[in-house]
Amino acid sequence: MKLHLLPAAAAATWEDMPADKVLSGTPRTRTIMLYESPEAKLYAGEWEATVGKWRIAYTEWEYVEVISGTCVLEGDDGSRIAAGPGRKFVIEPGFTGSWEVLEPMRKSWVIRD
Fold it and tell me: What is the dihedral of CA 27, 108, 100, 13, to 10 degrees?
């Protein structure tokens, strides 16, 4: 099948951010998987997070569209993106830095491994 209608919602469990990554707060996240194609290394879904800040290191490529809330990504290289509802951005493999959620947020995402 070459055409896929994604579900309106899917079950997901809230998880604590691993303590060794947390820089501030007590962030929790949940990932809602809506599409998987392991053979194409392509995944899509939605993600939610509570307020907090943590370290990130990307090996994958990710397209992000913020649905609600606000966040700031800061790269170890000095790059910075502040994003709120409707903002779109891409994170490329090799990006390292921090992800900070300033108010509870939800994003739509597509990842290519």
Answer: 10
> Which tens digits make up the pLDDT trace of 82-102?
999 999 999 999 999 999 999
Domains recognised in the chain with CATH numbers: 15-112 (2.60.120.10)
Q: What's the pLDDT at 4?
A: 79
Q: pTM for the full model?
A: 0.91
SS (H, E, C) the chain: CCCCCCCCCCCCCCEECCCCCEEEECCEEEEEEEEEECCCCEEEEEEEECCEEEEEECCCEEEEEEEEEEEEEEECCCCEEEECCCCEEEECCCCEEEEEEEEEEEEEEEEEC
Structure tokens at 16: 């604590």
Exposure string (b/e) for 15-35, b if CB count within 10 Å is 16 or more?
eebeeeeeeeeebbbebbebe
